[in-house]
Task: structure prediction
Amino acid sequence: MSPSVAEDLDLNNIFNFIDRTNSKPGKQYLYKKLFTPETSFENLLKFDKKVEAINMPRPDLERIELDLASLNSSDAYYLAELFLKQHEFLLVPLMSLYIRVSGIAIIGLIISLFIVPNPVCFMVLIALIVGNVALHYGTRNKISSYTRSLPQLLILNSVARKLLKKISFEQDEEVKASLNKLSGLNRSLKLVSFESKLADNPENFSYAVYKFIKLIFLLEPLMFITSIKRINKYRADIEVIYKYVAEIDTLIAIQSVRQGLPHYSKPVFYTENMQMDLTDMYHPLIYNCVPNSIHTRTDEGVLITGSNMSGKTTFIRSIAINTLLAQTIFTTCTSAYKAPLLKIQTSIRTIDDLGENKSYFQAEALSILDIINQSSGEEPVKSLVIIDEIFRGTNTIERIAAAKSVLTYLTDNKNFVFVSTHDLELAELLDNDYAVYSFEESVNDTRLVFDYKMKTGVLRNKNGIAILETIGYPESVVEDAYIVSEELKRKYVL
Result:
């Protein structure tokens, strides 16, 4: 999914809403899933079956969540780096040799000083210790992500073994095989395990002593050079275990989301019927959001007219968000969702770019051109196109003319198109190609009251000047605005 679409849909806030994960791998897995809509119906069904398989008594789920929470350290973010790339040996051979033997040399010098005190040996010992401290901090930045992830790898393996005893999935045998392959690596990381136990009580004197020993004897670089080959060898197995644990955490989170929604439905995907039917749809981030329903098809776009603040932008954004949720977590904020698998394209938050010398209109035109280029008749997956206030950055006549041409092109190429606009003339120009709906308000004393319910037909009332009046503009300004408005309507037959 493009960054512009993610921004248009407030996708980071959507993620924060559905993120009920207990581990950092689960959080990473859910985030990637939300930003990567699925185009395979079979994969979505398989995913939903796993969500249902997690449906167990709450006490059992809480024990699983407690296991997953042991991977909630920020260091667990680095686990993915163990399998996402081939690790290079960052230290030169001579330095590697020194790291291996320096600890032995220091122990030998200490023993010799106890037996026969010698100033030369003492000076050499001091030089080795100072050199090792410098080398520890000199190599730390290069290998920190690696050494920080190794303790988490041991925890990951432990969590996976616990989950295998509590949950049964198809890939269990693959996970068990990967755990067995990593058992040798686990034994070589006993030092890491020892440190993890000490770190549970960092104020303990023994932990401070261990940190000092680790510094003097270059234990972190030694851990790196002795385990990097094995990590590279078992990258695929680490990935299997990581995804197994992360997915279970995500499944539990999605089940929690479903239980917490006012109402939800699982999507039904059409394979040949190019229609979209959304019933009682709402925006998940809006408290007590008023639900609306829509039925449309690819040969008939939807034009949404509406007063300012009436809810038209929220409505079209909700369509895109629910399409995304349907094709990622198989859950929609509707009573019923029926549509084909779609590619989501939006133009909502266009801004000018002074650094690129682009005006607002040019930036908007480029955004819509990108939508056009990805919505041709040859595209195997049709697009859901969401455009808010199309071509608002130019004059009225050219805006309406350009908008009409673009919107006709998009429906001619069999895409689902939802457009909000203040230009009521568009409804007449598009004629039978677009169904027209509106969001309106009523006036209650000096207040505007919105019901946020979509109605059939063109907006008849505009509230721009009324808003000026309700927020306290001078009476003379408001009256003059109404007079000029009536003159313009008569002059341009608006």
